[in-house]
Amino acid sequence: MLNNNTILAGVELMIEFNKQILRLLPYLILVSLIISLGAIFIYTPPMYDGAGTLLNESFNIFFIHLPIALISYFAFMLVFVSSILYLHTFNNKWDKFAASSAEIGAIFAFLVLLTGSIWANDVWGWYWVWEPRLTTSLVLFLVYVGYIMVRQSVDEPEKGARLSAIFGIVGFISVPLSFFSIRLWRSVHPVMFGDTFYGTTGGGIGGIEIIVTLFINLITFFLLFVGLLIFRYDNEKLKSKVYTLKRKLMNN
Amino acid sequence: MFKSLNICLKDLQSEFRSKKKLNSMIIFSLLVVLIFSISFGNFIGKSSFIDSLVPGVLWVSFTFVSTIAIFQSFSDEIENGCINALKLCPAQWNAIYTGKILSTLTLLYLVQLFIIPIFALMFNYSFQGIFLLAVVVLVGTSGIVSVGVLLAAITMNTRSGELLLPVLLFPLIVPVIIPSVLATGKIISGSTFVDILDELRLLVVYVIMFYTTSRLLFEWTIQD
Fold first, then answer.
1. Looking at chain B, which residue has its C-alpha nearest residue A143?
2. How many H helices and E strands in chain B?
3. Is residue A108 domain-resident?
4. What is the ipTM of this complex?
5. Contacts of residue B210 in chain A, CB cutoff 8 Å?
6. Cα dihedral sign for B25, B29, B31, B32?
7. Where do transmembrane segments lie in this chain (chain B) (predicted)?
8. Which domain holds residue A78?
């Protein structure tokens, strides 16, 4: 027989269980970070390019560069989806989710620029070149900085949530642009998968070790993203709790 | 559609009575072109330099002028709370968006009709393919304005609207600016319609995308 009390007890047990997992999450991320660093520096063999010449060690940064780029696109997609859901339901949960995801996505987008610049300096000889991929990546970062600014420049939380949801949906237009930029225009940036629109095929990933290392790194950074998202979301919840308490005190 | 045309005519009528926006836009664009001609003074007369400078300079001036026009598209409505009266109109709120786009575009086209000859004069430059250029300018400007009016509606609700608008607008219109500048450069070096078809296609795709998303989202910006 299920009665209310057993259901409540079950729910409490689940919350308790989730908390246990949450407490473990940082350690899990730490372990997977160590594993992925080990994979990058120990597991992968020396890299050769198509012509057979040995690639510089700076290629190792690729295993960090590509996963965080993909995760930042993923974060912005979450912003897009939860913005639509917010405008559809006006449930504050989605707004908090979008805010957390946008902030972490912006940090990841910045790290993409940073790692890309370091790598470019070693391979091309400059930190920055004006070309489509780099420009659109910078634009992507700036769009989501703008998103955070919209949120901060409105005092009422409800209005801020509505306006930033609108901007989160419009701003998502930059994500496919950044993704397809190297396929639309001729660019120095290598294409890793898929074909370009002007004829050449992508590629450059060869060998099982490289794919495995890439996969490990992708999982690691995904875990890192999820962990940050959960903690940031909790933060938002506390923030709105503080806000309502303050309002209550001011009204008294 | 007719209702948005009515809103556009209302805007234009009040604008042509005061000519407040039009005058400031023309003077501003004149100054931008003047500053460019001062800063690139050494290159004027060297046609190879000018050829590569013109597309960028032209689109920078258009972007600046569009920012002013877009910012002012809602400033009148805010001043005396006209936006509330506009919302009471027996029309869908989307019609307000389309009407605002039409009126802003009309003003901008007028200003551009003025800038391009001044530009040619200052840079001592003769444009080839003026009709192709007109097509690119028309499509490119409508791309900037269609997303800009939505952003103006967002920023009019914020504390630092006039500061925030360019910060939000410039990154978003990059997909419009890149093909516009490329197409303008190709036209200047004597290309035909077939050569700029790729850029034009990308431009049209972005204009349609910006217009439809902004039109869908507009009603949430002016909701209280």
1. B171
2. 9, 0
3. yes
4. 0.87
5. 170, 173
6. positive
7. 21-40, 52-71, 101-123, 129-151, 163-188, 200-218
8. 63-251
